[in-house]
Design goal:
11 strands, 3-stranded mixed β-sheet, 5-stranded antiparallel β-sheet, elongated, alpha+beta, 51% strand, 165 residues
Length: 165
Amino acid sequence: MKAIKQTAILFIILVTSLISAQEKSESELISKLNNGVHFVAELSDSNVKLKDSVIITYKLYVSQDIGISNYNMRDYIESEDFKFEDITSSDVKVEYEVFKNEKYRFVILKKSVLKPKQKGKFELEALVLDFTSEIPSKNSDAFGRLIMEKVKRTIKTDNITINVI
Protein backbone atom coordinates (compact mmCIF):
# COMPACT_ATOMS: atom_id res chain seq x y z
CA MET A 1 0.00 0.00 0.00
CA LYS A 2 2.87 2.35 0.85
CA ALA A 3 4.40 1.79 -2.61
CA ILE A 4 1.09 2.74 -4.26
CA LYS A 5 0.92 6.00 -2.26
CA GLN A 6 4.52 6.87 -3.19
CA THR A 7 3.80 6.16 -6.86
CA ALA A 8 0.68 8.32 -6.72
CA ILE A 9 2.63 11.17 -5.12
CA LEU A 10 5.35 10.93 -7.79
CA PHE A 11 2.68 10.93 -10.49
CA ILE A 12 1.03 14.05 -8.99
CA ILE A 13 4.44 15.81 -8.84
CA LEU A 14 5.11 14.87 -12.46
CA VAL A 15 1.69 16.09 -13.67
CA THR A 16 2.05 19.31 -11.66
CA SER A 17 5.49 19.90 -13.21
CA LEU A 18 4.12 19.32 -16.71
CA ILE A 19 1.17 21.67 -16.15
CA SER A 20 3.53 24.30 -14.75
CA ALA A 21 5.79 23.96 -17.81
CA GLN A 22 2.80 24.19 -20.14
CA GLU A 23 1.72 27.46 -18.57
CA LYS A 24 4.93 29.20 -19.55
CA SER A 25 4.25 31.86 -22.12
CA GLU A 26 5.94 31.82 -25.49
CA SER A 27 7.88 34.96 -24.59
CA GLU A 28 9.36 33.11 -21.61
CA LEU A 29 10.48 30.30 -23.90
CA ILE A 30 12.05 32.74 -26.36
CA SER A 31 13.76 34.48 -23.45
CA LYS A 32 15.05 31.10 -22.31
CA LEU A 33 16.44 30.53 -25.79
CA ASN A 34 18.07 33.97 -25.91
CA ASN A 35 19.69 33.39 -22.51
CA GLY A 36 20.56 29.74 -23.14
CA VAL A 37 22.58 29.94 -26.37
CA HIS A 38 25.82 31.90 -26.70
CA PHE A 39 28.33 32.14 -29.56
CA VAL A 40 31.72 33.25 -28.25
CA ALA A 41 35.09 34.06 -29.82
CA GLU A 42 38.02 33.39 -27.49
CA LEU A 43 41.46 34.79 -28.22
CA SER A 44 44.59 33.13 -26.84
CA ASP A 45 46.18 36.58 -26.42
CA SER A 46 44.93 40.03 -27.39
CA ASN A 47 48.48 41.44 -27.40
CA VAL A 48 50.81 39.65 -29.80
CA LYS A 49 54.26 40.33 -31.23
CA LEU A 50 54.61 40.70 -34.97
CA LYS A 51 56.45 37.39 -35.44
CA ASP A 52 54.17 35.43 -33.09
CA SER A 53 50.73 34.03 -33.76
CA VAL A 54 47.42 34.04 -31.93
CA ILE A 55 44.69 31.38 -31.81
CA ILE A 56 41.03 32.30 -32.12
CA THR A 57 38.47 29.72 -30.99
CA TYR A 58 34.75 29.97 -31.73
CA LYS A 59 32.58 28.15 -29.18
CA LEU A 60 28.85 27.55 -29.18
CA TYR A 61 27.47 27.31 -25.60
CA VAL A 62 24.04 25.69 -25.16
CA SER A 63 22.12 25.27 -21.90
CA GLN A 64 21.06 21.81 -20.79
CA ASP A 65 17.40 22.09 -21.85
CA ILE A 66 17.82 23.45 -25.39
CA GLY A 67 18.62 21.46 -28.51
CA ILE A 68 20.51 22.81 -31.53
CA SER A 69 20.49 21.53 -35.10
CA ASN A 70 21.21 22.74 -38.62
CA TYR A 71 23.83 25.34 -37.79
CA ASN A 72 25.68 27.33 -40.44
CA MET A 73 28.39 29.97 -40.06
CA ARG A 74 27.52 32.74 -42.50
CA ASP A 75 30.54 34.99 -42.33
CA TYR A 76 34.15 33.99 -42.15
CA ILE A 77 36.70 36.41 -40.80
CA GLU A 78 38.86 38.04 -43.41
CA SER A 79 41.62 40.58 -43.01
CA GLU A 80 44.53 41.70 -45.12
CA ASP A 81 46.42 42.31 -41.87
CA PHE A 82 46.61 38.62 -40.90
CA LYS A 83 47.38 35.28 -42.44
CA PHE A 84 44.74 32.73 -41.42
CA GLU A 85 45.24 29.01 -41.00
CA ASP A 86 42.21 26.91 -40.12
CA ILE A 87 43.01 24.25 -37.51
CA THR A 88 39.44 23.14 -36.81
CA SER A 89 39.08 19.44 -36.11
CA SER A 90 36.50 17.57 -38.16
CA ASP A 91 35.60 15.66 -34.99
CA VAL A 92 33.04 17.82 -33.15
CA LYS A 93 33.01 16.84 -29.47
CA VAL A 94 30.45 18.01 -26.92
CA GLU A 95 32.10 19.19 -23.71
CA TYR A 96 30.86 20.78 -20.48
CA GLU A 97 31.96 24.03 -18.91
CA VAL A 98 30.69 26.61 -16.44
CA PHE A 99 29.81 29.75 -18.41
CA LYS A 100 28.16 32.79 -16.81
CA ASN A 101 27.89 30.84 -13.53
CA GLU A 102 25.86 28.01 -15.12
CA LYS A 103 26.78 24.61 -16.50
CA TYR A 104 26.63 24.58 -20.31
CA ARG A 105 27.38 22.13 -23.07
CA PHE A 106 29.68 23.54 -25.72
CA VAL A 107 31.30 22.64 -29.01
CA ILE A 108 34.21 24.24 -30.80
CA LEU A 109 32.87 25.21 -34.22
CA LYS A 110 35.99 26.85 -35.60
CA LYS A 111 39.60 27.30 -34.55
CA SER A 112 42.17 29.35 -36.48
CA VAL A 113 45.75 30.50 -36.15
CA LEU A 114 46.25 34.16 -37.04
CA LYS A 115 49.69 35.43 -37.98
CA PRO A 116 49.96 39.23 -38.10
CA LYS A 117 51.55 40.87 -41.15
CA GLN A 118 52.08 44.31 -39.62
CA LYS A 119 52.02 46.20 -36.31
CA GLY A 120 48.98 48.07 -35.07
CA LYS A 121 45.60 47.69 -33.42
CA PHE A 122 43.13 45.64 -35.47
CA GLU A 123 39.46 44.80 -35.05
CA LEU A 124 38.08 41.61 -36.56
CA GLU A 125 34.38 41.59 -37.31
CA ALA A 126 31.95 39.20 -35.64
CA LEU A 127 31.25 35.75 -36.99
CA VAL A 128 27.53 35.08 -37.63
CA LEU A 129 25.82 31.75 -36.92
CA ASP A 130 22.37 30.65 -38.13
CA PHE A 131 20.82 27.67 -36.33
CA THR A 132 17.61 25.89 -35.50
CA SER A 133 16.86 25.30 -31.84
CA GLU A 134 14.37 23.07 -30.14
CA ILE A 135 12.75 24.42 -27.01
CA PRO A 136 9.91 22.94 -24.96
CA SER A 137 6.59 24.47 -26.00
CA LYS A 138 3.58 24.96 -23.75
CA ASN A 139 1.79 22.06 -25.49
CA SER A 140 2.05 18.35 -24.76
CA ASP A 141 1.34 15.21 -26.72
CA ALA A 142 -1.17 12.48 -25.85
CA PHE A 143 1.31 10.97 -23.37
CA GLY A 144 1.88 14.25 -21.51
CA ARG A 145 5.36 14.86 -22.92
CA LEU A 146 6.17 18.44 -23.85
CA ILE A 147 6.26 19.05 -27.57
CA MET A 148 9.52 20.59 -28.71
CA GLU A 149 9.13 23.68 -30.86
CA LYS A 150 11.67 24.48 -33.57
CA VAL A 151 12.80 28.10 -33.71
CA LYS A 152 15.25 29.56 -36.23
CA ARG A 153 17.74 32.03 -34.78
CA THR A 154 20.80 34.04 -35.77
CA ILE A 155 23.51 35.04 -33.29
CA LYS A 156 26.98 36.49 -33.61
CA THR A 157 30.17 36.81 -31.65
CA ASP A 158 31.51 40.10 -30.41
CA ASN A 159 34.10 41.88 -32.52
CA ILE A 160 37.66 41.03 -31.57
CA THR A 161 40.46 43.53 -31.04
CA ILE A 162 44.07 42.43 -31.47
CA ASN A 163 47.03 44.65 -30.63
CA VAL A 164 50.15 43.70 -32.63
CA ILE A 165 53.35 45.10 -31.07
